[in-house]
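pinned: reference chain
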Amino acid sequence: MILNAWDLPALRPAATWRPWRPVTPEEAKPNADSPALRYDTRVKAAGIFFPPTDFLDWDGKLADMKLLGELLFLGGTNGHSDAEIKERALQISPARLVKPPVIPFLLIHGDADPLVPLQQSQKMVAALKAAGGSPELICEERRRASLDDPAGGSEDYGGLV
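pinned: its structure tokens
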């Protein structure tokens, strides 16, 4: 499984997805009320590019919850209390959801990413290790957020992708 930061299931409405399938490996429950639980989330390995992993610790502060809007709630954050917003951010922060068994992870992140700080990948690596995993982080110098971003280059990361 190879994921770009914004290819996450998070692009679907918040009520219908589970963050980062490889972080929560579970068998499908075909008769579950929630559509998100009807799909098997077990994979053999994951390659992740520029991942947002902890919305409550975004380089030492809270992520911009207004910017996350639809990611957090259908219809955005308007009408939700700060406590509700923080609770939802906790629920969708992959680094806070890691549990054994941990599959192999390869995270690739650029140190010049203006959107998702390198700290997010580092945080995920720490969470995976704490759960017994052995993730690898490749830090690309002067790399920005996208493989096809002209400012970041379109190289294939040394043949990794």
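why pinned: Residues 1-18, 146-161 have pLDDT under 50 and may be disordered. The longest strand covers residues 105-110.
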